[in-house]
Amino acid sequence: MSLKYYKSETAFQFENGATIDELTVAYHTYGTLNEKKDNVVWVCHALTANSDVFDWWPGLFGENELFNPHDYFIVCANVLGSHYGTTNPLSINKQTGNPYFLDFPQFTIRDIVAVNQRLADYLGIQQIEILIGGSLGGQQALEWVAAKTIAVNQLIVIGTSAQSSPWGIAFNESQRLSIAADPTFFSNTVDGGVNGLKAARSIALLSYRNYQTYTKTQEETDAEKSDSYKASSYQQYQGDKLVKRFNAYSYWYLTKAMDSHHLGRNRDSVAKTLQSFTPKTLVVGIPTDVLFPSSEQEFIANNIPGAAYYELNSFYGHDGFLIETKTLTEVIGQFLQRTPKTTNESIKEQYN
Protein backbone atom coordinates (compact mmCIF):
# COMPACT_ATOMS: atom_id res chain seq x y z
CA MET A 1 0.00 0.00 0.00
CA SER A 2 3.01 2.28 -0.35
CA LEU A 3 3.19 5.07 -2.89
CA LYS A 4 4.42 3.85 -6.28
CA TYR A 5 5.57 5.64 -9.40
CA TYR A 6 5.13 4.93 -13.08
CA LYS A 7 7.42 6.79 -15.46
CA SER A 8 6.34 6.84 -19.09
CA GLU A 9 9.04 6.23 -21.66
CA THR A 10 7.21 8.25 -24.32
CA ALA A 11 6.19 11.89 -24.52
CA PHE A 12 2.70 12.88 -23.42
CA GLN A 13 0.56 15.05 -25.67
CA PHE A 14 -2.14 17.21 -24.15
CA GLU A 15 -5.56 17.79 -25.68
CA ASN A 16 -4.43 21.29 -26.74
CA GLY A 17 -1.44 19.87 -28.66
CA ALA A 18 1.27 20.75 -26.12
CA THR A 19 3.69 17.99 -25.13
CA ILE A 20 5.97 17.10 -22.25
CA ASP A 21 8.88 14.74 -22.74
CA GLU A 22 8.43 12.80 -19.52
CA LEU A 23 5.41 11.80 -17.49
CA THR A 24 5.45 10.45 -13.95
CA VAL A 25 2.32 9.08 -12.29
CA ALA A 26 2.10 8.49 -8.55
CA TYR A 27 -0.37 5.80 -7.54
CA HIS A 28 -1.45 3.35 -4.88
CA THR A 29 -2.69 -0.19 -5.28
CA TYR A 30 -4.30 -2.40 -2.64
CA GLY A 31 -4.87 -6.12 -2.92
CA THR A 32 -3.96 -8.41 -5.81
CA LEU A 33 -5.13 -8.56 -9.40
CA ASN A 34 -6.77 -11.95 -9.77
CA GLU A 35 -6.09 -14.44 -12.55
CA LYS A 36 -9.12 -13.34 -14.57
CA LYS A 37 -8.19 -9.68 -14.01
CA ASP A 38 -11.83 -8.92 -13.27
CA ASN A 39 -11.60 -7.61 -9.70
CA VAL A 40 -10.36 -4.06 -10.40
CA VAL A 41 -11.85 -1.14 -8.50
CA TRP A 42 -10.47 2.12 -9.88
CA VAL A 43 -10.95 5.22 -7.72
CA CYS A 44 -10.75 8.70 -9.23
CA HIS A 45 -10.00 11.28 -6.55
CA ALA A 46 -11.24 14.83 -6.06
CA LEU A 47 -9.49 18.21 -6.26
CA THR A 48 -6.88 18.22 -3.46
CA ALA A 49 -6.87 14.55 -2.51
CA ASN A 50 -4.09 12.07 -3.29
CA SER A 51 -3.77 8.48 -4.42
CA ASP A 52 -4.02 7.01 -0.89
CA VAL A 53 -7.76 6.37 -0.92
CA PHE A 54 -7.59 4.42 2.35
CA ASP A 55 -6.49 7.69 3.97
CA TRP A 56 -9.13 10.09 2.61
CA TRP A 57 -12.16 7.80 2.07
CA PRO A 58 -12.17 5.68 5.25
CA GLY A 59 -15.43 3.93 6.00
CA LEU A 60 -15.88 3.02 2.35
CA PHE A 61 -12.32 1.89 1.54
CA GLY A 62 -10.16 -0.05 3.98
CA GLU A 63 -9.11 -3.46 5.24
CA ASN A 64 -12.56 -4.24 6.63
CA GLU A 65 -14.72 -1.95 4.53
CA LEU A 66 -16.97 -2.49 1.50
CA PHE A 67 -14.03 -1.95 -0.83
CA ASN A 68 -11.19 -3.94 0.69
CA PRO A 69 -7.94 -5.50 -0.56
CA HIS A 70 -9.17 -9.02 0.18
CA ASP A 71 -11.93 -8.89 -2.43
CA TYR A 72 -10.64 -6.30 -4.89
CA PHE A 73 -7.57 -4.96 -6.62
CA ILE A 74 -7.99 -1.27 -5.82
CA VAL A 75 -6.16 1.36 -7.86
CA CYS A 76 -6.03 5.11 -7.31
CA ALA A 77 -3.81 7.38 -9.38
CA ASN A 78 -2.78 10.86 -8.35
CA VAL A 79 -4.16 13.20 -11.02
CA LEU A 80 -2.10 15.08 -13.56
CA GLY A 81 -1.13 18.49 -12.19
CA SER A 82 -1.38 17.53 -8.51
CA HIS A 83 1.83 17.86 -6.53
CA TYR A 84 1.33 14.56 -4.73
CA GLY A 85 3.77 12.82 -7.04
CA THR A 86 2.35 13.06 -10.56
CA THR A 87 3.88 15.48 -13.07
CA ASN A 88 2.72 18.99 -12.15
CA PRO A 89 3.68 22.69 -12.33
CA LEU A 90 6.41 22.21 -9.71
CA SER A 91 8.02 19.38 -11.70
CA ILE A 92 11.33 20.18 -13.38
CA ASN A 93 11.14 21.22 -17.00
CA LYS A 94 14.23 19.54 -18.46
CA GLN A 95 14.47 22.16 -21.19
CA THR A 96 15.06 24.91 -18.62
CA GLY A 97 16.25 22.99 -15.57
CA ASN A 98 13.65 24.82 -13.46
CA PRO A 99 10.11 24.03 -12.35
CA TYR A 100 7.39 24.73 -14.90
CA PHE A 101 5.30 26.96 -12.65
CA LEU A 102 2.95 28.89 -14.98
CA ASP A 103 4.65 27.49 -18.09
CA PHE A 104 3.05 24.11 -17.45
CA PRO A 105 0.67 23.19 -20.28
CA GLN A 106 -2.99 23.83 -19.55
CA PHE A 107 -4.70 20.46 -19.21
CA THR A 108 -8.25 19.15 -19.18
CA ILE A 109 -10.22 16.34 -17.57
CA ARG A 110 -9.61 14.40 -20.78
CA ASP A 111 -5.86 14.76 -20.25
CA ILE A 112 -6.21 13.45 -16.70
CA VAL A 113 -8.14 10.47 -18.06
CA ALA A 114 -5.49 9.86 -20.72
CA VAL A 115 -2.89 9.68 -17.93
CA ASN A 116 -5.10 7.22 -16.05
CA GLN A 117 -5.28 5.11 -19.20
CA ARG A 118 -1.50 5.04 -19.51
CA LEU A 119 -1.23 3.74 -15.98
CA ALA A 120 -3.92 1.12 -16.65
CA ASP A 121 -2.00 -0.08 -19.70
CA TYR A 122 1.21 -0.23 -17.66
CA LEU A 123 -0.53 -2.29 -14.95
CA GLY A 124 -1.95 -4.67 -17.54
CA ILE A 125 -5.54 -3.72 -16.73
CA GLN A 126 -7.85 -4.26 -19.68
CA GLN A 127 -11.15 -3.94 -17.84
CA ILE A 128 -12.36 -2.11 -14.77
CA GLU A 129 -15.01 -3.91 -12.78
CA ILE A 130 -15.99 -0.84 -10.73
CA LEU A 131 -15.06 2.74 -11.60
CA ILE A 132 -15.94 5.21 -8.84
CA GLY A 133 -15.43 8.89 -8.11
CA GLY A 134 -16.98 11.95 -6.51
CA SER A 135 -16.78 15.60 -7.56
CA LEU A 136 -13.75 15.99 -9.88
CA GLY A 137 -13.32 12.24 -9.47
CA GLY A 138 -16.79 11.74 -10.88
CA GLN A 139 -15.95 13.97 -13.82
CA GLN A 140 -12.95 11.76 -14.57
CA ALA A 141 -15.01 8.59 -14.29
CA LEU A 142 -17.69 9.88 -16.67
CA GLU A 143 -15.11 11.09 -19.18
CA TRP A 144 -13.25 7.78 -19.06
CA VAL A 145 -16.41 5.86 -19.92
CA ALA A 146 -17.17 8.38 -22.68
CA ALA A 147 -13.65 7.99 -24.10
CA LYS A 148 -14.24 4.25 -24.52
CA THR A 149 -10.55 3.44 -24.13
CA ILE A 150 -11.14 0.69 -21.57
CA ALA A 151 -14.00 -1.63 -20.67
CA VAL A 152 -15.92 -0.53 -17.57
CA ASN A 153 -18.51 -2.91 -16.15
CA GLN A 154 -19.95 -0.85 -13.28
CA LEU A 155 -19.87 2.90 -12.79
CA ILE A 156 -20.53 4.84 -9.58
CA VAL A 157 -20.45 8.65 -9.58
CA ILE A 158 -21.32 10.94 -6.68
CA GLY A 159 -21.88 14.70 -6.51
CA THR A 160 -20.62 15.42 -10.00
CA SER A 161 -21.73 16.66 -13.42
CA ALA A 162 -21.64 15.80 -17.10
CA GLN A 163 -20.61 19.35 -17.93
CA SER A 164 -19.16 22.08 -15.74
CA SER A 165 -21.83 24.64 -14.95
CA PRO A 166 -21.46 28.43 -15.14
CA TRP A 167 -21.99 28.39 -11.36
CA GLY A 168 -19.11 25.99 -10.77
CA ILE A 169 -16.84 27.84 -13.18
CA ALA A 170 -17.66 31.11 -11.40
CA PHE A 171 -16.64 29.60 -8.06
CA ASN A 172 -13.37 28.41 -9.59
CA GLU A 173 -12.66 31.75 -11.25
CA SER A 174 -13.28 33.55 -7.95
CA GLN A 175 -10.70 31.30 -6.34
CA ARG A 176 -8.21 31.97 -9.13
CA LEU A 177 -8.81 35.72 -8.78
CA SER A 178 -7.88 35.37 -5.13
CA ILE A 179 -4.69 33.51 -6.01
CA ALA A 180 -3.77 36.05 -8.71
CA ALA A 181 -4.31 38.90 -6.22
CA ASP A 182 -1.31 37.54 -4.32
CA PRO A 183 1.68 39.04 -6.20
CA THR A 184 3.96 36.22 -5.04
CA PHE A 185 2.00 33.84 -7.30
CA PHE A 186 3.90 35.31 -10.25
CA SER A 187 7.29 35.07 -8.54
CA ASN A 188 7.84 31.49 -9.75
CA THR A 189 8.82 30.20 -6.35
CA VAL A 190 7.69 26.98 -4.70
CA ASP A 191 5.71 28.85 -2.04
CA GLY A 192 4.33 31.45 -4.42
CA GLY A 193 0.71 32.43 -3.94
CA VAL A 194 0.25 30.95 -0.47
CA ASN A 195 -1.91 33.80 0.82
CA GLY A 196 -3.97 33.70 -2.34
CA LEU A 197 -4.41 29.95 -1.95
CA LYS A 198 -5.60 30.46 1.62
CA ALA A 199 -8.27 32.89 0.40
CA ALA A 200 -9.21 30.54 -2.43
CA ARG A 201 -9.78 27.71 0.03
CA SER A 202 -12.04 29.94 2.07
CA ILE A 203 -14.19 30.58 -1.01
CA ALA A 204 -14.24 26.89 -1.90
CA LEU A 205 -15.48 25.91 1.56
CA LEU A 206 -18.61 27.98 1.03
CA SER A 207 -19.46 25.70 -1.88
CA TYR A 208 -18.49 22.48 -0.10
CA ARG A 209 -20.89 23.13 2.78
CA ASN A 210 -23.99 25.35 2.92
CA TYR A 211 -25.94 27.89 4.99
CA GLN A 212 -27.44 25.28 7.29
CA THR A 213 -24.07 23.61 7.92
CA TYR A 214 -22.44 26.85 9.01
CA THR A 215 -25.46 27.91 11.06
CA LYS A 216 -25.26 24.69 13.04
CA THR A 217 -21.50 24.16 13.36
CA GLN A 218 -20.30 27.77 13.68
CA GLU A 219 -23.17 29.22 15.72
CA GLU A 220 -22.18 31.71 18.41
CA THR A 221 -23.46 31.28 21.95
CA ASP A 222 -22.09 34.57 23.27
CA ALA A 223 -24.55 37.30 22.31
CA GLU A 224 -22.09 39.99 23.46
CA LYS A 225 -19.36 38.99 21.00
CA SER A 226 -18.51 41.57 18.33
CA ASP A 227 -15.40 40.03 16.75
CA SER A 228 -13.36 36.81 16.46
CA TYR A 229 -16.32 34.71 15.41
CA LYS A 230 -16.21 30.93 15.10
CA ALA A 231 -16.96 31.09 11.38
CA SER A 232 -14.01 33.46 10.86
CA SER A 233 -11.65 31.19 12.79
CA TYR A 234 -12.90 28.18 10.85
CA GLN A 235 -12.18 29.81 7.48
CA GLN A 236 -8.71 30.84 8.65
CA TYR A 237 -7.98 27.36 9.98
CA GLN A 238 -9.07 25.58 6.82
CA GLY A 239 -7.08 27.98 4.64
CA ASP A 240 -3.92 27.44 6.69
CA LYS A 241 -4.50 23.70 6.63
CA LEU A 242 -4.56 23.54 2.83
CA VAL A 243 -1.54 25.84 2.43
CA LYS A 244 0.51 23.40 4.50
CA ARG A 245 -0.23 20.47 2.19
CA PHE A 246 -0.86 21.90 -1.29
CA ASN A 247 0.47 24.55 -3.66
CA ALA A 248 -1.16 27.41 -5.50
CA TYR A 249 0.07 26.38 -8.96
CA SER A 250 -1.45 22.91 -8.84
CA TYR A 251 -4.67 24.37 -7.45
CA TRP A 252 -4.83 26.97 -10.24
CA TYR A 253 -4.41 24.39 -12.98
CA LEU A 254 -6.72 21.80 -11.47
CA THR A 255 -9.59 24.27 -11.13
CA LYS A 256 -9.14 25.12 -14.82
CA ALA A 257 -9.23 21.41 -15.62
CA MET A 258 -12.55 21.16 -13.80
CA ASP A 259 -13.88 24.07 -15.87
CA SER A 260 -12.98 22.15 -19.05
CA HIS A 261 -15.25 19.22 -18.24
CA HIS A 262 -17.79 18.74 -21.04
CA LEU A 263 -18.82 15.27 -22.19
CA GLY A 264 -20.24 16.72 -25.40
CA ARG A 265 -17.12 18.55 -26.59
CA ASN A 266 -16.30 17.29 -30.11
CA ARG A 267 -19.05 14.70 -29.68
CA ASP A 268 -22.72 14.75 -30.68
CA SER A 269 -23.98 16.16 -27.36
CA VAL A 270 -23.78 15.62 -23.63
CA ALA A 271 -27.07 13.70 -23.60
CA LYS A 272 -26.17 11.45 -26.53
CA THR A 273 -22.78 10.73 -25.01
CA LEU A 274 -24.43 9.59 -21.79
CA GLN A 275 -26.98 7.58 -23.76
CA SER A 276 -24.12 5.61 -25.30
CA PHE A 277 -22.89 4.41 -21.88
CA THR A 278 -23.04 0.64 -21.31
CA PRO A 279 -21.83 0.09 -17.70
CA LYS A 280 -24.36 -0.67 -15.00
CA THR A 281 -24.48 2.71 -13.32
CA LEU A 282 -25.27 4.21 -9.92
CA VAL A 283 -25.54 8.00 -9.68
CA VAL A 284 -25.70 9.61 -6.24
CA GLY A 285 -26.98 13.15 -5.81
CA ILE A 286 -26.90 15.30 -2.68
CA PRO A 287 -29.87 17.71 -2.44
CA THR A 288 -27.97 20.02 -0.04
CA ASP A 289 -25.00 20.32 -2.43
CA VAL A 290 -24.74 23.91 -3.69
CA LEU A 291 -21.69 23.27 -5.90
CA PHE A 292 -23.05 20.30 -7.85
CA PRO A 293 -26.85 20.51 -7.37
CA SER A 294 -28.60 17.16 -7.43
CA SER A 295 -30.39 18.19 -10.63
CA GLU A 296 -27.05 17.63 -12.38
CA GLN A 297 -26.89 14.06 -11.11
CA GLU A 298 -30.52 13.46 -12.04
CA PHE A 299 -29.68 14.55 -15.58
CA ILE A 300 -26.85 12.00 -15.70
CA ALA A 301 -29.04 9.20 -14.36
CA ASN A 302 -31.93 10.05 -16.67
CA ASN A 303 -29.71 9.78 -19.74
CA ILE A 304 -27.62 6.69 -18.96
CA PRO A 305 -29.64 3.61 -19.95
CA GLY A 306 -30.91 1.76 -16.87
CA ALA A 307 -28.99 3.95 -14.42
CA ALA A 308 -29.91 3.88 -10.74
CA TYR A 309 -30.29 7.18 -8.93
CA TYR A 310 -30.08 7.73 -5.17
CA GLU A 311 -30.46 10.97 -3.21
CA LEU A 312 -28.08 11.18 -0.29
CA ASN A 313 -29.63 13.51 2.27
CA SER A 314 -26.59 14.95 4.00
CA PHE A 315 -26.26 17.84 6.43
CA TYR A 316 -22.76 18.41 5.03
CA GLY A 317 -23.62 19.44 1.47
CA HIS A 318 -21.07 18.58 -1.19
CA ASP A 319 -18.69 17.15 1.40
CA GLY A 320 -21.31 14.54 2.17
CA PHE A 321 -19.74 12.20 -0.38
CA LEU A 322 -16.67 11.99 1.87
CA ILE A 323 -18.50 11.93 5.19
CA GLU A 324 -21.65 9.82 4.75
CA THR A 325 -19.73 6.59 4.21
CA LYS A 326 -22.09 4.45 6.29
CA THR A 327 -25.02 5.29 4.04
CA LEU A 328 -22.90 5.02 0.91
CA THR A 329 -21.74 1.57 2.00
CA GLU A 330 -25.34 0.44 2.28
CA VAL A 331 -26.48 1.99 -0.98
CA ILE A 332 -23.47 0.89 -3.03
CA GLY A 333 -23.57 -2.56 -1.46
CA GLN A 334 -27.18 -2.97 -2.57
CA PHE A 335 -26.34 -1.70 -6.03
CA LEU A 336 -23.46 -4.12 -6.50
CA GLN A 337 -25.69 -7.05 -5.59
CA ARG A 338 -28.20 -6.07 -8.25
CA THR A 339 -27.34 -7.84 -11.49
CA PRO A 340 -30.09 -6.92 -13.99
CA LYS A 341 -30.49 -3.36 -15.17
CA THR A 342 -33.70 -1.72 -14.05
CA THR A 343 -35.45 1.55 -14.75
CA ASN A 344 -34.69 4.78 -12.95
CA GLU A 345 -38.14 4.87 -11.36
CA SER A 346 -37.92 1.34 -9.94
CA ILE A 347 -34.53 2.11 -8.44
CA LYS A 348 -35.89 5.24 -6.77
CA GLU A 349 -38.70 3.19 -5.24
CA GLN A 350 -36.25 0.63 -3.88
CA TYR A 351 -33.92 3.22 -2.36
CA ASN A 352 -36.42 5.75 -0.98
Automatic annotation (TrEMBL):
InterPro entries: AB_hydrolase_1 (IPR000073), AB_hydrolase_fold (IPR029058), HAT_MetX-like (IPR008220)
Entry keyword annotation includes Cytoplasm: yes
Active site: 135, 289, 318
GO MF annotations in UniProt: homoserine O-acetyltransferase activity
Keyword terms: Acyltransferase, Amino-acid biosynthesis, Cytoplasm, Methionine biosynthesis, Transferase
Keyword check for Transferase: yes
GO cellular component, one term: cytoplasm
GO biological process: homoserine metabolic process; methionine biosynthetic process
Catalytic activity: L-homoserine + acetyl-CoA = O-acetyl-L-homoserine + CoA
Enzyme class: transferase
EC number annotated for this UniProt entry: 2.3.1.31
Location(s), subcellular: Cytoplasm
Binding site for substrate: 201, 319
Signal peptide (residue range): none
Pathway: Amino-acid biosynthesis; L-methionine biosynthesis via de novo pathway; O-acetyl-L-homoserine from L-homoserine: step 1/1
Its biological purpose: Transfers an acetyl group from acetyl-CoA to L-homoserine, forming acetyl-L-homoserine.
Assembly notes: Homodimer.
Similarity comment: family membership: Belongs to the AB hydrolase superfamily. MetX family.
NCBIfam families: homoserO_Ac_trn (TIGR01392)
Protein name in UniProt: Homoserine O-acetyltransferase
Species of provenance: Sphingobacterium psychroaquaticum
Taxonomic classification: Bacteria, Pseudomonadati, Bacteroidota, Sphingobacteriia, Sphingobacteriales
